[in-house]
Amino acid sequence: MVKFILSLFRPFRKILEWAGVNYHQFEVILQAKLTMDNRKVLGHNNQQKAMKNALGMQVMIYTMMGGFMSMMLMKGSGALFFFTTIFFSFIMIMVIMGLISEFNTILFDTRDNSILLPRPITPRTLLFVRVMHIMIYLMVISLSLSIIPLIVFAITFGVAPMLILLADVMLMTIFSVFLTNIIYMLLMKFTSGERLKDIIVYSQIVMAIIFMGAYQLMPRLAENEALISSFSQIKLWMYLVPPFWMSASLTPIINGGFSLQSAIFLTLSVAMPVLGLWILSSVLAKSFNQNLATLDQGDTKSEKKKGKAEKATLVDFLARIFTYSLDERTSFKTIWQISSRDRKFKQAVYPALGYVFVIILMTFINGHTSMADIVESKKFLLLIHVPSFILFILTFSLRFSDNFKASWIYLTIPVQRPGHIISGAFKAVTVQLYLPIFIIVNIVTIYIWGAGVIGQIIFGLCAALMMNYVILLLQPAIFPFSDEKSAEQSGRNATKSMLMFFTITAMGGLHYLLLYLNVNVLNVLPLVLIVLFLLSRKYRLTPWNKMTNFV
Fold it and tell me: What pLDDT is stored for residue 426 in this prediction?
């Protein structure tokens, strides 16, 4: 497989050498990286076999997602320009989000500096190895998303237009990768050290939220007839938006009427990825590795953190309220501190906080629904249950860390029940990140629907915690931040995302059924509280022989 991937780069050898890359070094280093990816031991407790199928699972999930997008392309040539623009925007969003959430660690892997830079390897060569290493995985994403649309395109318009669409998908992927890397490298050029790390993390979070909002907005745009008709004419601003380059050059080839405007868009769609390649190699690559070295260095100035004593007092107070034992309280306070400082944990979790507000806003922004209709509806169930996404993401993210090898420290802890450690960790991130969002969202719920929904809010909170404890007990028990997260786990993460979506939907559906049957949830609440107490107690009493990493 590695040899096949490397063979795909050989036709472009002259282009890479033109960009200043030593092709022999490029191929050798890339081969080593891909070989290490294949040999990497993923997870613990005989999970390697399951993880070998992660890439196949990832392809299947993205293929299904692309299948939904292909339905727009089946509407024919009448609105082809609009729907191909939506399709290319979708590809661009998914590639950029993949780079932000999964593969940025490859780009910013500072270990290469100490291993490779002392050898006679040019900075351009090393940078292109990083970028192409990422590109291989992102091409898998974009091509998986495009499999069904390509088939639909071939059936509807013919094989030649399908091949043009395939070329445009690959060009869009290349341009998306270079665009994101240029932004990152410009940030590295104007800042350094700890501040750079924070800027990168928070910019990734903001970008992920923006792209999630755009993803939610796309289906609504597809139903807007006035918007579709407005695409009948080329506007000046379209020359600044990459998806328009691809669709405005593809549509005239299929429908006829190729003009000077079409030629300009075709030139942009081909030239801009090449220009991005040149900018990376000639302008930014020279200082990239020097700036990257600052990521391993902290700021020289020591900043005094105001309110540190007050914050510690608050954490102690919350730990006493939500924990039962000294071991659980210690874990609560420790994980609280780690989760508030660990950038990778923030990067994995914080976008979910924004997603909650995006989903809620997109659901309520509807020109055909008045405020009076909203008050009469049961949409408050959405505000109650959508924050549960945060809870489930916390459950999955809490187990991973780049420093997972340090988990040997758990073996030295003199505790009889490791469940106290994992229970305290779960409670810490729940109180720190889930409860504040849940309270903020449901203050709005009470403001719109009145105090009569307070009972529904309490029931929803308890039901969400109950279902999350069920999931915690069903999956293998593992200490916090003690497992490895690698690029190949995207397939398993996608499966967990589907399970999370199904669970939250089922929980909201059950709540709606109780309301539909005129069942007073306050009568059911004592039973839910009893089950929640028993589940939390069982999780807290998890014995050592149930801990996956240390059996």
Answer: 94
Q: Which residues, listed in sequence order, are joined to residue 483 by a DSSP beta bridge?
A: 400
Question: How would you class 67 by CB atoms within 10 Å of its CB: exposed for 0-12, middle for 13-18, buried for 19 or more?
Answer: middle
What is the rounded CA–CA span in Å between residue 404 and residue 547? 15
CA atoms within a 13 Å half-sphere pointing along the CA-CB vector of 273 = 20
- Average confidence (pLDDT) over 503-511: 87
Q: Distance between CA 355 and CA 211 in Å, rounded?
A: 10
**Whether residue 310 has pLDDT greater than 60:** no
Asked if residues 463 and 381 have their Cβ atoms less than 8 Å apart, the reply is no
Phi-psi bin for 481: left (phi > 0), alpha (psi -120 to 50), beta? left
- 459 versus 548: the higher-pLDDT residue is 459
User: Which residues on adjacent β-strands are paired with residue 400?
Assistant: 483
Category of 476 on φ-ψ map: left (φ > 0), alpha (ψ -120 to 50) or beta:
beta
Structural tokens at position 333: 């306070």
In angstroms, rounded to a whole number, what is the distance separating the alpha carbons of residues 124 and 492? Answer: 34
- For residue range 157-214, list pLDDT tens digits in order: 888 888 888 888 888 888 888 887 777 777 766 765 566 667 767 766 776 676 666 6
Contact of 137 with 57, CB cutoff 8 Å = no
Q: Please give the C-alpha separations between residue 322 and each of 115, 252, 328, 382, 429, in angstroms, as whole numbers.
A: 47, 64, 9, 27, 12
Tokens standing for residue 252:
């005239």
Phi and psi dihedrals of 325, rounded to 5? Answer: -130, 170
Residue written as token pair 């709540």? 511
Closest CA to 277 of 25, 30, 20: 20
Report the phi/psi class of residue 197: left, alpha or beta, with left for phi > 0 and alpha for psi in -120 to 50.
alpha
- CB atoms inside a 10 Å sphere around CB 483: 21
Cβ contact 413:320 at 8 Å: no
Q: What CA–CA distance (Å, rounded) separates 370 from 452? A: 21
Residue among 267, 27, 5 at smallest CA distance from 137: 5
Confidence band for 215, pLDDT divided at 50, 70 and 90: low
pLDDT number for residue 493: 56
Nearest to 137 by CA among 55, 240, 15, 43: 55
Beta bridge partners of 477: 547
- Name the one residue in this structure whose structure tokens are 């990816």: 37
Burial (CB < 10 A; 0-12, 13-18, 19+), residue 518, is exposed
Burial class, 118, CB count within 10 angstroms (exposed 0-12 / middle 13-18 / buried 19+): exposed
Q: Which residue has the tokens 């060569």?
A: 125
